[in-house]
Amino acid sequence: MIRIIHAVPDMNSGGIENYIMNMYRNVDRSSLQFDFLVHHDKQAFFDEEILDLGGRIYRLPVLDTKNVPLYQRQLRRLFQEGNWKIVHGHVASLAGLYLHAAESADVPVRIAHSHGTSFLKTPKGYMKRLLFKGAKRSANVRLACSTEAGKYLFGNQSFYVVKNAIDSARFRFDPEARARVRSELGLTDDDFLVGHIGRFNLQKNHSFLIDVFERLVAMSPCARLLLVGTGETRSAIEAKVRKAGLMDRVLFQDVTNEPEAFYSAMDCFVLPSLFEGLPLVGIEAQCSGLPSLFADTISRETTISDLAFYLPIDDPSGWAAEINSLSRNLDRELYASLPARHGYDSMENAKVMESVYMHAAVEGVSAFASLLD
């Protein structure tokens, strides 16, 4: 059996994590197994499923402890004692350290995978941007979730685009799930539910979304807003909602293991992020037949249907007007076939990556590259 180790911040539910898990569930685990190098010490959303699938989790909590010298020593020991043919890195800011340790331990295939197109303009963000440069030094395979994400991290160097993929059947619109979830949320048939799924952090731009919704309510009294996720800015967003007097109209929901049911319950999806590589939630929402409003900072590669709209993130009134003009009369079940047509089906993606991994482990990087061409 060939084991691959994925380097991630942690395995809480998010775009990168869902991409990896969609692949993990669909590869042949009798010949290929995933392990995980995580950088937080706390239990995460997918940990139990990983263990059930036969994966191992190695915790080096440098993001909690800030102890870089200890982290480097632990990395050296981890890769010297491990037996991985491939390390697949999804954390660009730390890749200069863990890919270098893998190279020193003679791990033959070292992947840097770009999932972003920009960074937060904060002191921490600028520090991460400097660290990103180290991601390229020890990598001998460069992957990206979109063309823009590849150019952002790798510049003029060559890279391969590997599309984020979803389980299309899972995210097909389900009228029974819609009725059930809307009942649980206390919604009527007349309520127009605007939805967002994403971690509460600055990148996702929830504060702007509340500005949008405040204007939408003035246009459409039946509008409701559903925010699904957890994170460091949630309390601040809850406070902003209270101050705006919208607590009876804004619904907060923790991370769920059935996001597909919440998509079915929504009437439109919004993602006003400051930046994204290629948002998996955007593909999921369109698969569910949801009109989807994206910030114009997001790659147009997210478009798989006529339901995708891109708006500037300096005009909350424009977003509100666009949402208010959306049609409710859609045959939503027709959209479920579109992800596969555009190369975003998880089963097909898993088979491609399974072949790539197997060839790379046996024949080396050149075989890996030839399969991706």
Radius of gyration: 21 Å
* Overall SS class: alpha/beta
Q: What oligomeric assembly is this protein in?
A: single chain
Largest sheet: 7 strands, parallel
Order of secondary-structure elements: EHEHEHHEHEHEHEHEHEHEHEHEEHHHH
Q: State the distance separating the first and last CA atoms.
A: 26 Å
Helix share of residues? 40-55%
Number of helices: 16
Q: Low-confidence spans: pLDDT under 50, at least 5 residues?
A: none
| Percent strand | 15-25%
How would you explain this protein's 3D organization?
There is one protein chain. With 373 residues, the chain is of the alpha/beta class. 42% of the residues lie in helices and 16% in strands. It is built from 16 helices and 13 strands. It has helices spanning 15-26, 47-52, 62-65, 68-81, 92-104, 123-132, 147-154, 175-184, 206-219, 234-243, 259-265, 280-287, 316-324, 338-341, 346-363, 365-372; strands at residues 2-8, 32-38, 57-59, 86-89, 109-114, 141-144, 160-161, 192-197, 223-228, 250-253, 268-271, 292-295, 308-311. It has a 7-stranded parallel beta sheet, sandwiched between helices. The radius of gyration is 21 Å and the shape is globular. It starts with a strand and ends with a helix. The mean pLDDT is 93.
